[in-house]
Amino acid sequence: MDARTGALRAITTSLTTTAALALVSLPAQAETDHVVGPGDTVSRLAAKYGVPTSSIIAVNGLDARATIYIGAHLTIPTSSPQPTPVTHVVARGDTAWDLAAAYGISVSELSRANSLNVAATIRIGQSLVIPGVTGSPAAPTRPSASPSAASTAYAVRSGDTLWSIARSHDTSVASLAQANGLSNPSLIRVGQVLTVPSRAGAPAVATDKNVGSLSTTSSTYVVRAGDTLSSIAAHYGTTVSALVQTNSLSNPSLIRIGQALTVPGGTPTGLVGDTFLGRTYAAAVVAAANVNKASLNSMTVPSRTQMQQLVIDTARAMGVDPALAQAIAYQESGFNQRAVSPANAVGCMQVIPSSGEWASDLVGRDLNLLVAEDNVTAGVAILRKLQRNGTHLDIAIAGYYQGERSVRERGMNSDTVRYVASVKSLMARFD
After folding, report:
1. What residues have CB less than 8 Å from 195, skipping those under 6 apart?
2. Who contacts 361 (Cβ-Cβ below 8 Å, separation ≥6)?
3. Cα dist. 257→67, 187, 339, 396 in Å?
4. Residue 337: helix, strand or coil by DSSP?
5. 232-255 exposure pattern, b = at least 16 Cβ within 10 A, e = fewer
6. Cβ count near 52 (within 10 Å)
7. At how many degrees (to 10) do helices 240-247 and 229-236 cross?
8. pLDDT tens digits for range 96-133
């Protein structure tokens, strides 16, 4: 690994929102020259010299990710007044990882400054000191739209990315790109006005407990190549006549690719089998898996390449090794958000609904496993939890596949041993 690569991997801050950039101050007259060494980050230098992170970024003309390289010379405006740390009062939905990303610091720095525990647990109403950032408290906001609102307008600001905008507005990168006709989601410009679609109405995740109630409601299916009304009816456990009547079709033989059909009642069948790796799953579990598969088939989801980048970004933001997160995602689904197993493991990270509820508790907000960002957040949050207190990597990986309690009480099954070996091999590929 060369010095440039090592420096890039040492950088843990991610200025993907404007919260930190909004605090830029004028360059000072007295300055210090600092030669970047191994392990240096802008936020660490800001804390060391007692100046705002944003001042170092502004004086040196750094990019939005505050990228620095070993051996580079940085100008440190040391005559800046003694900084007054910004404080942030925790609101509902805040997590340490979101706040660290918003303020351009690392989770470990936030934890050290506030004596947080290993899981970086925060509570609503808690006042947090934001190290290395000065000025008026300018916490990242979480714009809230009325549930009935179809969309809102947002003007792009310096440091914004589609990812940061999507997270702050509780929507997805794919939805933003689609709503604004963006052929390259990486290219947005300051001042550009984006339409932010509401995520209200996202389908509920089907479980073996609620699949009965979910299957009695109608759903939407987008016609694909090779579909016929009879094949769609068979998949959803309904009839051709019901499809014809519900969609006012004058000619049942004429449906077109891309046409959205309302599917009345019935539980989807045939999309997901009932057996995996020699194990046959209960009918209720398989039924729920088919409902989730049908929902994902009718939704717009990110491509595999976009999912991989989402895994990388989420892992970095949550303090998990991106190589590990990528290896798990590839092993589980090949970065396919539409993947659903007979065990009702859903999406790119193949999280079962009960584990999704656990992950929701871990991050402090409800996660919908059918939504790409939430699915990845759930998987990465579980990986982070499995590695707590210095748990050996092999045990953490095994826990993701076999279940933490099962591994602890019975050891690794033979297929788990193979799974761990495969994931570790993939980690070397993604490192």
Report:
1. 151, 152, 153, 179, 180
2. none
3. 45, 30, 21, 44
4. coil
5. bbbbbbbbbebbeeebebeeeeeb
6. 24
7. 110
8. 766 766 666 777 777 788 887 766 778 877 888 877 65
Distance (Å, rounded) from C-alpha 285 to C-alpha 305?
30
Please tell me the distance from the alpha carbon of residue 413 to that of residue 402, in angstroms, as a whole number: 8
Structural domains of the chain, with CATH: 3-76 (3.10.350.10), 151-197 (3.10.350.10), 211-292 (3.10.350.10), 304-430 (1.10.530.10)
Task: Find the DSSP H helices in 237-303.
Answer: 240-247, 283-297
pLDDT in tens, 169-195: 666 666 677 677 776 655 677 778 888
List pLDDT tens digits, range 39-61. 788 778 877 887 777 778 777 77
422: how many CB neighbours lie within 10 A of its CB? Answer: 15
| CB-based contact 392:407 (threshold 8 Å) | no
Query: Rounded distance, CA 62 to CA 97, Å?
Result: 23
Among residues 415, 381, 414, 412, the alpha carbon closest in space to that of 394 is found at 412
Q: How far apart are the first and last CA of the chain?
A: 11
SS3 263: strand
pLDDT tens digit sequence for 258-312: 888 888 766 777 788 888 878 899 999 999 999 898 888 877 788 899 899 999 9
